[in-house]
Amino acid sequence: MHARRTTLIAAAAAAAFTLAGCSAASPSALPAGGEDGGSLVVYAPMDDARIDFVTEQAKEDLGIELTIVGGGGGDLATRLEAEKNNAQADVVVGLGESLLNRLDAQDMFDHYTPAWAELIPEQFRDDDAGFSLFTQTPIVIGYDTAHLGNAEAPDAWLDLAAPEYAEKFVFPATTGQTGQAAIVGILWRYADPETGEVSPEGWDALAAILQNAKQLSDGQQFDWDWVASGELPVVVNWLGGVQIGADDNDLDIAVVDTDGGTPFVSTGVAIVNGTDRAEQAQRFLDWFGSADFQVAYVEATHNDTPLNSDAVARLPEAAAALDSLTKQDIDWSVVTPHLTEWMQKVQLEILG
Questions:
Q1: Cβ atoms within 10 A of the Cβ of 138, count?
Q2: Which DSSP string do the residues of 207-270 spell out, in sequence order?
Q3: Nearest to 131, CA basis, from 165, 175, 99, 174
Q4: Residue 37 to residue 17: CA distance in whole angstroms
Q5: pLDDT digit string (tens) for 104-156?
Q6: Are 110 and 278 in contact (CB under 8 A)?
Q7: CA dihedral over 307, 311, 316, 317, signed as positive or negative
Q8: 146: which residues sit within 8 A by CB, 6+ positions away?
Q9: Predicted TM-score of the model (pTM)
Q10: Please, are residues 139 and 182 in contact by the beta-carbon 8 Å criterion?
Q11: What phi, psi does 271 have (nearest 5°)?
């Protein structure tokens, strides 16, 4: 018991990442921009800090003015579907693989192979897909070491249903891809790997976890002061979000290498079918996934480890953070057809 590894995210060291104040990339390594490179509307599940960084760097490096529309990944996917016949976005950045597959199945992407495509490991490439994957994002359980010891912390996702963790954590919103990926990771333990059908025991296990979490009222946001005070010593979030919270709030958060593995989400980029700014969109994708920009993006915003092999080679500490976690084996091609149905069941029958 409690033999699993933990990775300590110390605020003073800013975990495996260091905030960088450098320019995103050397001009010689990027497509030529010019003073006026046009404009793009980008849909991306980014926070304000990442929106600001990407916007400023795109203007500086490419001369492109970005309007980035943020929000939960699930909400953005639904919005794209609603706009299918009247596209408002030019580019999608950072949606998870399952959501990208769902949209791609509806022929919503203009297939384009970015300049960095061959630097992505083969298992993350699909020449038939309309999108390109560029990061790995672990969805993790952490705990504040000031209020929980190693022996008191959860070992596994299923431990979150235990009485000792009642209202000691907040489960991420199920409309966002962090919450959805966490739910998939729990349900997959009870799913038929061929059909994706989840057993009643699986739904009971998920319900017990969700009902054990602290419930936020409408419009209420997660507050890291709850963690610092000890009210919520357990944190469920994407790895970069934990690192940002630890750094901003001077906390030491240990990330658990959970029994049964950690769900990883690969995120990607795509050009939206119907855009009249295809040239700018292609230049943006070539730039965004380049090693120079990805390294700067990780260092400045705690974004998770890129898949670009040239970038990974320049981020050994970030790669080591991922290596400290055991990846849960989830077949997202089986999950994708069920994801909407699963989320509806969560909303209507568990949380409703």
A1: 25
A2: HHHHHHSPPPPTT----HHHHHHTSS-EEEEEHHHHHHHHHHTT-EEEEE--BT-B-EEEEEEE
A3: 99
A4: 31
A5: 999 999 999 999 999 999 989 998 999 999 998 899 999 999 999 999 999 99
A6: yes
A7: negative
A8: 230, 251, 252
A9: 0.80
A10: yes
A11: -95, 135
Structure tokens given for 216: 């936020």
* Structure tokens that stand for 149 in this block: 């010891």
Phi, psi of 35 (to 5 degrees): -70, -35
Residue type, 146: A
- The whole-angstrom separation of Cα 209 and Cα 16 is 30
Extended strands (E) in the chain = 6-10, 39-43, 65-69, 91-96, 132-144, 234-238, 252-256, 264-271
Residue 209 Cα distances to 80, 113, 137, 172, 225, angstroms: 31, 41, 22, 12, 22
Closest by CA position to 133, among listed 81, 104, 96: 96
Element (H, E) at 98: helix 97-104
3-state secondary structure of 304: coil
Cα dist from 20 to 249, 295, 298, 301, whole Å: 18, 10, 9, 9
Q: Which helix (H) or strand (E) holds 30?
A: none
What are the phi and psi torsion angles at 262 (to 5°)? -110, 130
Q: Are 339 and 182 in contact (CB under 8 A)?
A: no
Query: Alpha-carbon distance 64 to 60, whole Å?
Result: 8
Tens of pLDDT along 30-56? Answer: 344 444 679 999 999 998 989 999 999
